[in-house]
Specification:
With 221 residues, this protein is α+β, with helices and mostly antiparallel strands. Helix content is 43%, strand content 15%. A six-stranded antiparallel beta sheet has the order 1-2-3-4-6-5. Strand 3 and strand 4 form a beta hairpin. Helix 4 packs antiparallel against helix 7.
């Protein structure tokens, strides 16, 4: 399948799912999901694979075991690329009724990775490089997000010049576009490709300074 954009029918499907997140709705509209959501997303990540690596298209079902929200289906379709051997730093793309989202960085770090991340941020050379890259991304309309401590991390001073970065326990950059006509055309793959290219330096910093965890991975929730 060649990527030709995300059809409007896929966004309409998610509008309906937001209103009726139930098995009867899903069963009645599953062919819409396969044709207008999952199919185009699979085609998009396949097209980008030669440059970024093989992508994983996420399942549409929510893991409700640890959640008070028991609705069974995700109201978005996401896909992620994590290059083998880099250890950490990924690219992400998501489609929903709200439009297109592109992200990159680290969504979750284990304790050993957080420790290495903070050592690198505290280092004058590597910390300054990350601060400059985060500043560049913000200036280019990226939102810098991630899990952060309210308090000052142990072993660091509240007046450290990069205290905002030191508080992070994960860090990623995100851009979002609301639905417009280009989303239903091949222009969408260009937006994702350009966005992911803009995040290469951030992911490279994480790969060089944080790397893979040596701990058993936490169960996904």
């Amino acid at each position: 399948m060649t990527f030709e954009g995300f059809p409007d029918q896929g966004l309409v499907f998610y509008e309906g799912l937001e209103a009726d997140n139930s098995k009867p709705y899903w069963t009645a509209h599953r062919t819409d999901y396969e044709a207008h959501v999952r199919g185009p997303m699979s085609a998009l990540v396949e097209e980008l694979a030669p440059e970024f690596g093989t992508g994983k298209v996420f399942r549409p079902y929510r893991d409700v075991r640890f959640s008070h929200d028991k609705t069974p289906y995700k109201t978005h379709q996401g896909a992620v690329v994590t290059r083998v051997g880099l250890g950490t730093g990924s690219w992400y793309v998501q489609i929903s009724a709200d439009g297109l989202t592109v992200s990159g960085g680290c969504w979750r770090l284990e304790s050993d990775q957080v420790a290495r991340y903070r050592r690198a941020v505290a280092d004058e050379l590597q910390g300054s490089r990350l601060a400059a890259e985060v500043g560049r991304l913000r200036a280019a309309a990226w939102e810098i997000e991630g899990d952060r401590l309210v308090r000052v991390p142990a072993g660091f001073s509240a007046d450290h010049e990069r205290i905002d970065l030191l508080r992070h326990r994960s860090l990623y950059a995100t851009r979002h576009w609301t639905p417009e006509d280009w989303l239903h055309t091949r222009a969408a793959v260009d937006r994702v490709r350009e966005g992911w290219r803009d995040l290469v330096a951030l992911n490279t910093w994480f790969a060089d300074n944080v790397g893979a965890t040596t701990k058993e991975p936490r169960p996904r929730r």
